[in-house]
Each structure stands twice: as C-alpha cells, then as structure tokens.
Write a structure and sequence with these properties.
Shape: globular
Helix content: 25-40%
Distance between the termini: 46 Å
Oligomer: single chain
Radius of gyration: 23 Å
Number of helices: 18
Strand content: 15-25%
Length: 504
Amino acid sequence: MKHKHVKFLAASVFLALSVVSEMAQAAGVLTIGRREDSTTFDPIKSAQNADNWVFSNVFDPLVRVDKTGTKLEPGVAESWSVSPDGKVYTFKIRDTQFSDGTPLTASDAAFSLLRIRDDAGSLWRDSYSIIASAEAADPRTLVVTLKSPSAPFLSQLALPNASVISEKALKAEGAETFAEKPVGSGAFSVKEWVRGEKIVLVKNPNFWQAKNVSLDEVDWLTIPDDNTRMLKVQAGELDAALTVPFSRIASLQKDGNLKVELDPSTREDHLLINHSHGALGKVEVRQALDFAIDKDAIVKTVTFGYGQVANSYIPAGAVYHYNDNLRRAYDPEKAKQMLKAAGASDLTLNYVVNAGDEVDEQIAILLQQQLAKAGVKVNLQKVDPSQSWDMLVAGEYDISVMYWTNDILDPDQKTTFVLGHDTNMNYMTRYKNDTVKALVAAARVEMDAKKREQMYIDLQKMAKADVNWIDLYYSPYRNVTRKNIDGFYQNPLGRFFLEDTVKK
C-alpha cells in the first residue's frame, strides 16, 4: 500500500505541475507564485500584505495612491471638495457598478466607512473614529463629516481596507460568506479560492476602467518555499514570483528569460517583542536586546547589500522620517551587563520563524548567534507562514521577525497601528505607553505641518527609547517575472497594478 500511495502521489504532483505549467502558458492568464495565502476577503478584518495586495485588484477605494506612490488620484470618487473648516468632505461618486452588475452608490460608500469605524471585528476602528457621520445626499453624492479636522483623513480613504463594498451583497450573504466570495468594484472579481492553494481572479467587465485591462485571469498560487517559487518561474511554470531571496537576485538577473523587478518600497523588517512576557516587559531588557543585535551584519550577510539599516519605524523616504533617530551600536558586552542589572542574565526566548522563508531563516540563525554572545538563549520554532500570524495575535511568542509596508501616504496609519492602537495590541507587541498613545491621537488632528512633523519626530524618538520593537532594515520589493510580462509593478505602498499588466 505504501508504495502504491507514493506512486499515486508522485503522479498527482506531476499532474498538478503540468496544470500550473499550462496556466502559465495560457494567453491572458497571469500566474503569480507567492509565499502566503490570503486570510480573508473582508477588508476590515485584515492588516496583512498578503490580503491587501489582492484586495487592491478586487476592491476600489474612494481615492487611490498613484503609481509613483507619492500622490492621490480618483478611485470610486471621481472628484471631491473640502469645507473651509476642514470637517466636511463631499465626494462625487462615479457612475459604475459592482462585479455582480448592481449599481455602486453613495449609500454603499457610506456603509463601508461606517462599518470600518464601528464593526467589532474591524482592525481599523481607531483610524476611522474621527468620522462623525457618513451620509448619501443622493445616489452620486457622499458627505462625510469629521469630528474635527484631520490631516491624514484623505490619505486614509486610500487604504485598501476602506474600499467600497456592496452593502446589499454583504447583508444578503452574511459577513462570513462575503469574506470567502466578495462583491467589489475593482479590476477583477473572485472566481475561486482554494485555501492554502490558490485564488483565481477573473476580469470584472463592470470595472470603470475595464477597457484598459488586458488580462482575463490572475491566479495567485500559494507556494511557501522560496526555492520552489524561483525554480517554477525559471522553468516557465509561473509567470511571476514574489519575494525573491536576496541571495538569488544576481543569478536570476543573468537569466535571459527573466526580469527581476527591484521596486522602491516602504518595507521595514523588524523584530517584534512580546512585552507581556516576563522580563521583556522591562525597557532595560529590550534596550539590551537592541544593543545585542548587529544590524550591519544582517544587511551585509542576509540582504547582500540590497537593504539598509533601519533606525525608525517610519521608513526612509516616507513622510516625516527622522534620519537622525537613535541608532544603538552593536555592543554585546554592554547588553550582557544591562541584562544582569535588570535581573535577566539567564534570559531564554522563544523565536517564531517562518519556515521556508530563506531570509527569515537566515536572520534567525544570525540573531540566535548574536544574542548568545550577550548570554541570551534563543529557541527557534519554525512554523508554517500561515500559522505564524495567529500565533503572534495569540501572544504565543517572545520574539519574531516581521515586516510592514505602508498602505497610505500619511504616517498616521502605521503610527496608530504600532504605537497608539488598542484593537491589534500595537501590532501584537502588547506595547503600552499612554503618553505615546496621546501624542499619536494629537498628531492625527494637528493641521499645522511644522508642528505635526515635530510630533512624529518625537514619536520616533519615544518609540526608539521604549524599544517598542527592534528596527532591522529597509529594502526594495523583490519580484521576478518571465520576459514576456510587462507592467508587473508595485508602487512604494505595495499595490500591484494588474489592470495595467500585459502578457505578450
């Protein structure tokens, strides 16, 4: 029986690979290999790139960030105006439809904004609590009134999670069913989702820019192992593969059949610290861990020089980044002394690592070795990437490397989520500082640009002093496509413009 099972399994794998290869060759069908599967298609219930990067092609927000990642442009709202007191926003909703053919109205837009503000399952309630009311003056006119002027509000509307969804479809199907098979107004709609395997998107003929969409179908394939993804795109079994390991960039660039895309990003990799776990709740211990980590070695060894050492949660090149923020020098002896003084000289940490992620695994080995020099024992727990997020949310970790890319132009989104946010426990760190939280809220409504910039400089200093997490490095997006694929691009906020992608 065992031999027969192995033989059948091998045949099944061969058949599956053949199907993938045929999909990759099919005209009008773009196959993308990525490490992680999506978690949901309910936009308010996720804060993960794996979800948002697909959301952006299924849903359409009121306003969007352009390809350069530097300015806003019309989305569902074709135009807007702001009252002199900065509190009332009036949006003209374009004449368009959802993927099911029903009209998209100002009422749907109002429903979507109030849902992200009020729903108990929304991870983004804090960011939208500034909304006092959202009402449809008529089917094409949305009026949003704020409790006070808000500097980041227009930028917040470009967040994929704030996209306009169909009120009728959600109420008819229920939130759970909608989260599996949503109704949006983006360039594509969801045809099929096989969890852990693939998401199949098909062109939405009702999209307001449908005439510009070349692709008929986009298949997002879940392939956790980095090496496997790269081999498949080299073999022509995939049209594109995301997250090229730094170690493979140079060799893939030499392959005449491929194009390696290194796009400017807002990505920051950092070491999450669970402040609720014993000694990690002490700021002196977290500072010691920061001294014990050699970020320069990580950039040199792991990123092959493609990255740069991070010194702030606000990435280099982003609005209000403070370039002169504190950088703790690598000093394992000082770290050891600080840990001893804090009563944590025998510190043992459980480090959750994403298995199959070459970069994560390399960083894990380096950090384990570096922290050992400061007397810290690190146990590596390799888990499937689909499990690590839930473990972080549940607090079942001491440390873990994660990354963040900005979804909007304004720094309020990330600042709120990692420093002043209750709903998601400050990005699972359980970090608490009431003074910081108050400043986050004040910066959101400060309309004087100079004063607001200083607030964010102060927040970057305070976060570094508290070691809410340990900043590691900034790096570009790293994707690879076959040479017959044009327009496969991520803007600095991570959005894929698949409506402009062409397969020749």
